[in-house]
């Protein structure tokens, strides 16, 4: 048999242990909630980053296609123009000069026909 006051002490000790266990469970639940919130924020940041990258790539693609369409439309109907040849220009700036080869070729052919025809 235990003394009369021992039951009260045992009850108090059990209640204190239960209080500590409850506090541990509450702290662990709070940690789990914080970890879940951090994971949700990280996933949201990943999704936002992916969307930003998609928008940037789409914008770059739009500009690229715009320039390609401008280039294609600039060459649209070139069959009506004489052929051109780009040659390096001699000089300080190293730019390009456009030489009209069809006109030059036609002029040489005309002179050759003229010379052959008169002989």
Describe this structure in words.
The protein has 119 residues and is mainly alpha-helical. 76% of the residues lie in helices and 8% in strands. The chain contains two helices and two strands. The protein has helices spanning 4-75, 101-118, and strands spanning 84-88, 96-100. Strands 1-2 form a two-stranded antiparallel ribbon. It is rod-shaped. The N and C termini lie far apart (148 Å).
Topology:
Blueprint: H1 4-75, E1 84-88, E2 96-100, H2 101-118
Antiparallel strand pairs: 1-2
Provide keyphrases for this structure:
two-stranded antiparallel ribbon, mainly alpha, 119 residues, 2 strands, rod-shaped
Mean pLDDT across residues? 77
Q: Any low-confidence stretches, pLDDT <50, length ≥5?
A: 93-100
Q: What's the main sheet like?
A: 2 strands, antiparallel
Fraction of residues in H or I helices? over 70%
What topology, given as strand order, has the largest sheet? 1-2
Q: What is the number of beta strands?
A: 2
Computed Rg: 44 Å
DSSP helical segment count: 2
Question: Structural class of the secondary structure composition?
Answer: mainly alpha
Shape designation = rod-shaped
Strand content: 5-15%
Distance between the amino and carboxyl termini: 148 Å
Query: What is the H-and-E element order?
Result: HEEH
What's this model, at a glance?
The protein is mainly alpha-helical.
């Amino acid at each position: 048999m235990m003394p009369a006051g021992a039951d009260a002490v045992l009850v108090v000790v059990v209640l204190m242990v239960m209080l500590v266990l409850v506090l541990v469970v509450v702290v662990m639940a709070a940690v789990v909630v914080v970890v879940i919130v951090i994971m949700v924020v990280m996933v949201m940041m990943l999704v936002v980053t992916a969307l930003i990258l998609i928008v940037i790539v789409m914008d770059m693609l739009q500009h690229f296609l715009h320039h390609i369409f401008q280039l294609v439309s600039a060459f649209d109907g070139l069959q009506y123009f004489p052929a051109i040849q780009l040659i390096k220009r001699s000089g300080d700036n190293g730019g390009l000069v456009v030489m009209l080869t069809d006109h030059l070729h036609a002029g040489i052919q005309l002179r050759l026909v003229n010379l052959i025809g008169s002989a």
